[in-house]
Amino acid sequence: MTSTPPFPELLALIEARSAALRDAVAAAPDLTATVPGCPDWSLTDLVAHLGGVQRFWAAAVAAGDDKSPPARDQIGDQEPHGDLVDWSAASTELLLAALRDAGPDTPCWTWWADSGAPLTTGAVARHQVQEAAVHAYDAQETVGKAEPLPAAVAVDGVSEFLTVCLGSLGPWPHRPARVGFQAIEGPSWTLDLSPSGAKADPPTSGDPVTRIHATASELVLALYRRIPLTDIRIDGDRAVATDLITWSKTD
Predict the structure, then answer these.
(1) Predicted TM-score (pTM) above 0.85
(2) What CA–CA distance (Å, rounded) separates 15 from 10?
């Protein structure tokens, strides 16, 4: 288990990873190029997606309501217009400005209420780091310059994915299993999968049937299905790891 970076660092990471996406897009010779990690999207679609997401969460944060998502008129226009890179930068700044104004503890609607993770602006900032980081990787991969996720992003990203993304999926549809994740950088995590769902960092009560070893960046990218499981080391029951990645289906 790892600790979440402090709120100001989360905002800095959102800004940096969003800028990394824009740098890759600005260097791209063709904005219609297909994004390998999201094969139904072009680079233009990728930028539009992240910008639209950031504008949605800016409105959700500003609403200060953890009971329902923002209304359409609160969100405003989510479609790109004008220069694509400039529009993306403006989208990021809308999100960051809303988060700065709200601080980390303001109530906020999120889609992960079933996970037990906080319904706060701090939790939104934490997830938006991963949103920007994974899509920056997508943009870099599209232009042939993929880079590992920064350590500060990736280490917390494993924990965030196990807790928030998997914790929101409901019952595990396969035989109960315990999975261990070991980052080469040192941190490790344990995940229990059962009819009750996915539970990160459960009480110690047995060894994992599957252990997944990789850098923290590779673990995050595998969980988001950006790299195949064949690229990382898996000990024990590989079928559990395959079922886990198939079940997650998180973009």
Answers:
(1) yes
(2) 9
- Selection from 87, 112, 122, 117 nearest residue 14 by Cα: 122
Torsional sign, CA 26, 18, 214, 210: negative
CA dihedral (188, 156, 115, 197) positive or negative: negative
Burial of 180 per CB tally in 10 Å (0-12, 13-18, 19+): middle
Is residue 211 within 8 Å of residue 235, measured between CB atoms?
A: yes
> What pLDDT digit, counting tens, does each position of 124-179 carry?
999 999 999 999 999 999 999 999 999 999 999 999 999 999 999 999 999 999 99
Run of H or E including 191:
strand 188-194
Mode of pairing for the β-strands spanning 38-42 and 233-236: unpaired
Nearest alpha-carbon partner for 38 in 166, 164, 131, 112: 131
CA quadruple 34, 72, 64, 124: dihedral, nearest 10: -10
In the DSSP assignment, the letter for residue 113 is G
Cα 9 → chain centroid: 16
Identify whether the C-beta of residue 168 lies closer than 8 Å to the C-beta of residue 175: no
